Amino acid sequence: MRLLTIPGDANPQLSKLTVSLATTQEEIREVQRLRYKVFIEAFSLSALVNADGLDSDEFDAYCDHLIVRDNKTLRVVGTYRVMSPHAARRMGTYYSEKEFDLSRLNHLRGCIAEAGRACIHPDYRSGSVIMLLWAGLAAYMRRERCEYLMGCVSVSLADGGHNAAALYHALNDDNFAPAEYRVTPHTPFPVYEREAGHVPQMPPLLKGYLRSGAWVCGEPAWDPDFHSADFFLLLPLARLDSRYARHYRKEMRSV
Q1: pLDDT digit string (tens) for 102-140?
Q2: Closest listed residue to residue 83, CA positions, set 62, 99, 110, 57
Q3: Which of 103, 121, 221, 250 is most buried, most CB within 10 Å of its CB?
Q4: Within 10 A of 215 (CB to CB), how many other CB atoms are there?
C-alpha cells in the first residue's frame, strides 16, 4: 500500500505524517512499544508489565499493522491492528471471539475485517493521526474487499465502572444493531449496577465509530486484564456518514 501524506497539524512543530502497513519485524516492535506505553504504562496495568516493554500477543503475527509515522522524527505515533478474513481463517478465530459469541455474524465472515488496539501517542491526539488511521482502514478494506468492519472499544473501569455503565444507558435505539447482528459477551460487564446521575464521558474512538454509522451490538464485556468494559461495534461501510465517506474516498484515490 503506497503511503498517504497529510499535513501533520496546525502546530508548526509537527511535520507531515504518513500512513502505511508495517512490513518488518522491527516496525511491529515499534508498534508494540507504543501500545505498551499507551495501554500498560499510562494505565498502570501491573499484571501486564514486562521487561521487554512490549504489548504483544499471539494475534500480532497474523494481523496487519497500520502505522502512522512522523516523517521528521521517524517515530511511530499511531497504530491500528487489522485482521482480514483470510488471516482469521488461518488463525482460526477473531480477537473479539475471546470476549464475545459472534455466531450471529457467521454469514459475514468472508467480508468482515476486525480492527483493534487503536493507539495514538499522547503528543499527537489533536485529530490528524486518527483521521489518517481511518483513511488507511478504508483503503485496507477496499483492498481486501471487505464490506464490514468490527472491533471493540475499551472504556476504563478506573472510576469503578460508573462511566461505562452510564455510556451504555446513554445510547439510543439508532446506536444499537438490529437483532440479527447482536453479539453476547462471555463475561458481561454489569451495566445495571450504576451510579445515579452520572454524566457519561464518551471516549473519542467510540464517538468516531458512532458518527461513522457503527452499531453497538449489545452489552459490553468485562476485560479483567485491561481493567475495561469492552463495547463491540459493527460498521457496515454502506452506513458511513457522507462527511466521512467523502474524506475516505479522497484519501483512497491516493493509495
Answers
A1: 999 999 999 999 999 999 999 988 788 888 898 888 889
A2: 62
A3: 221
A4: 22
Pairing of strands 148-156, 228-236: antiparallel
Report yes or no: 217 and 234 within 8 Å, Cβ to Cβ: yes
Bridge partner residues of 20 (DSSP): 67
pTM: 0.85
Can you spell out the DSSP letters for 74-111? Answer: --EEEEEEEE-HHHHHHHTS-GGGGTEE-GGGGGGGGG
| 75-107 residue pLDDT tens | 999 999 999 999 999 999 999 999 999 999 999
- Contact of 211 with 179, CB cutoff 8 Å: no
Q: What residues pair up with 119 in beta bridges, in sequence order?
A: 79
**Helix, strand, coil % over all residues of the chain, rounded to 5:** 40, 25, 40
Torsion of CA 214, 216, 221, 226, to 10 degrees: 30
For 215, the grid coordinates are 452499531
Dump the DSSP string for 158-183.
Answer: TTSSHHHHHHHHH--GGGBPPGGG--
Buried b (16+ CB within 10 A) or exposed e, 227-252: bbbbbbbbbbbeebeeebbebbeebb
Q: Decide if 255 contacts 21 (C-beta within 8 A).
A: no
Average pLDDT in the chain: 86
Task: Return the residue matching grid coordinates 459475514.
Answer: 108
